[in-house]
Design goal:
Number of helices: 6
Oligomer: single chain
Shape: flat
Strand order of the largest sheet: 13-14-12-11-15
Protein name: Large polyvalent protein associated domain-containing protein
InterPro entries: LPD29
Organism: Streptomyces fuscichromogenes
Distance between the termini: 76 Å
Pfam families: LPD29
Length: about 270
């Protein structure tokens, strides 16, 4: 059986985290010295530790048995890319530590929730705070910083992460719909405007002439989302005159364009 070096496992883990939790910045570090077979993962807010460990646990080749003070081998295998070649083998990883930080913004939101649960009074800065219930979650008796941290971890961050996932799913659905609409057109071009994505064009093909037209109108290519977008158009009302001009110039290149916004009628 092949053995996968810790650094290659760390690189693969970094890619999987990026794919599984888009929008969250992870720091994945390989240990040094006696900890060279360990990996540490750091991030702020976002998913809970349990969700991240669902991804990290299968990538450990060993686990520490504290009762017997020794490492025990797992049956895990991992597939990684090494110099452009897929390799499957046993990961040379003794353990993966996870560290989620809580942002100051989340702690401030936690303090607001604590205040609402206590008739509007500000959280004390000292002394032990009694146990309480915040948004249906039991918050243990603790010092103020620890209570704010628990509220942020148990209430604020899960709510924010659920909202972020719903937003990402909605954006993915809109993009899929836009691509389907583009595929139905003769040349596959779809010009649309939404508040969240701004003015975008999907369905272009290499060499179809659309790129030169779009660049003249200030569009830029979004490599990750694979569409053209007009900078500064997000969270703005649709500029129907701009949409009409772009559509007209694209059609002048014998391209078929469908639009998701009504085009402005040029004045006489």
């Amino acid at each position: 059986m092949d053995y996968i070096d810790t650094k290659h496992v760390a690189a693969e883990l970094r890619n999987r985290l990026r794919t599984e939790f888009p929008g969250v910045k992870f720091s994945v570090r390989k240990g040094t010295g006696t900890a060279s077979a360990w990996i540490s993962v750091y991030w702020t807010d976002g998913p809970c530790t349990a969700d991240v460990e669902e991804l990290t646990r299968p990538m450990q080749g060993s686990q520490f048995n504290g009762m017997e003070d020794r490492y025990e081998s797992t049956d895990n295998t991992v597939t990684v890319t090494v110099k452009g070649r897929k390799v499957t083998g046993k990961p040379l990883v003794d353990g993966i530590n996870t560290h989620r930080d809580v942002s100051d913004d989340a702690l401030k939101a936690a303090a607001v929730l604590w205040s609402k649960a206590h008739d509007g009074i500000e959280p004390p800065t000292g002394g032990m705070l009694a146990a309480c219930v915040v948004d249906g979650h039991v918050i243990q008796e603790n010092w103020p910083p620890q209570q704010m941290w628990q509220i942020a971890s148990d209430v604020v961050l899960p709510q924010r992460w659920d909202a972020a996932k719903e937003q990402a799913a909605a954006q993915a659905a809109r993009r899929a719909s836009a691509h389907e609409a583009a595929d139905e057109g003769a040349e596959g071009l779809n010009l649309q405007h939404t508040a969240e994505d701004g003015t975008t064009v999907t369905g272009t093909r290499l060499g179809d002439g659309a790129a030169d037209v779009l660049k003249l109108h200030g569009f830029k290519w979004h490599r990750k989302n694979q569409y053209w977008y007009a900078p500064g158009s997000r969270d703005q009302a649709a500029d129907t005159g701009f949409l009409a001009a772009v559509a007209a110039d694209l059609r002048a290149e014998d391209l078929t364009v469908t639009t998701a916004q009504p085009e402005a009628t040029p004045s006489a």
